[in-house]
Description:
The structure holds two protein chains of two kinds. By secondary structure, chain A is an alpha/beta fold. In chain A, 37% of the residues lie in helices and 18% in strands.
Amino acid sequence: MKANIIGVGSTTFSEHWHYGLREMISYASLNALKSANIELKDVDSLFVANCLGSTINGQNNINAICSDELAIQNSVAIGGGDAAGAYAIAQAANSIMAGQSKIALVIGVEKMSDMPITDITQIASEVTEQEYEASTGATLASLYAMITLKHMKLYGTTDKQLGSVSIKNHSNAVENEIAQFRFKVMMEDIAKSPMIADPIRLLHSAAPSDGCCALIMCNEGSAKEYKDKIQLAGTGIGADFMAVHEREDITTFNSVRSASKSALANAGIKVEDISFAEVHDSFSIGEIISIEDISFTKKGNGGKFIEEGNAELDGKIPINPSGGLKGCGHPFAATGIRQAIEAFYQLNNKAGKRQVKNPKYALTENISGTGATAVVNIYSL
Amino acid sequence: MYKSNIVMAWRKTKRGNYVIGSKCKECSALFFPSRRRCPKCESNEMEDYKFKGNGEIYSYSTIHYPPAGFEKQVPYTVAIVKLDEGPKMVAQIVDFEHLEIGMKVESCIRKVYVDGEKGIIHYGIKFRVTE
């Protein structure tokens, strides 16, 4: 038996100055219920992913906020850094398959615009190791920058190839109503954008954002009554050393390798069966390494693969048709749920102008920090 | 960012001013920072190991957008240093004009940051270029 998604809802990803966590949670959840055409009283369990709420918003106990706001007794909060969204989907699926939940509401929420950028840079770096990495002054961006530089040195990955990731994802985001950055960027714009942590520039980085995404999940039998649905065909979870420096080769995400391998095995398919993927491009190099470690292309070839157009909407394997984290913005714990929403629209042929042609299997890859953990979910109709 | 308070600073002092990691008593694998169990051979028998503090630049980045607490230092450079004994570690690099992967470095004690006007001064390991 597999768990299914029968409804989706989301706020836009934006700077939601006028709304707090509660408003965002209600908005996304009520829209997801509406999309599935069910009532709040039909929901028997709630899973909420949130990463930085206790630091940025001073709000811990986020599942209690959801229970209060939506009058659902059985709720639980799921952590897991910026992969929390995908973890929540996996946990809800476990509960459904165990018969503990009949209809589950799965929420990912993050509100990051309430603080100045130096504070956000510090807080976002909480997803990295603190005592020996961040304490030196190393930021999340600088750790990715060191990974980028090493990838350039080892495989000849170029600045232009990094740029082609941003160009593609911004271009895809133009057609995505959820996305925060719905404009195209050119190579010159990227080269002129401020340097964050050499060689990573602003336009190589996914911006912190406010966003809430929600899904309605149920078992295979109940899902038959619903018109638009997708099945969680397989899930895989992987881990690597928390600190980048402890990894033998920093240009490989071992977490992604093992998560994608188990997800494919769990779904009973091969990587060639995947029609498109949503991957974790918090920085351009993240998308390049992810497609290598999922095995869409061989190690070291990721930059070239994207530069040659293979990851475009009409390419060999479309990557981030939604616009990815770069185009949509990256409200940490909401991202994994947003990726599932993209799979829902694409597999039901409702993605409008960014529709991938006849997709059968969607792969989503959500990682935490610099790849310490990864959750890969595979969806089908 | 991990802002150590006085208790945490005290806890780290013993190790903070040296590059101390651990060595597996079974398979002799070295680690930085210390581990309680060997991820290579699964042994639980570990002992402290003091590294010489010499190594080379494995990768690096110059930070222009700092986390809170590091604003006054911008731009500053962090690196992954590969110690001569094998393990790698993250640290700031100081006293250099030009940096490249592979350059030789040695550890030194420097001020990492000051905890506000009345806070304690945090010292830690940085590396300087020796070639």
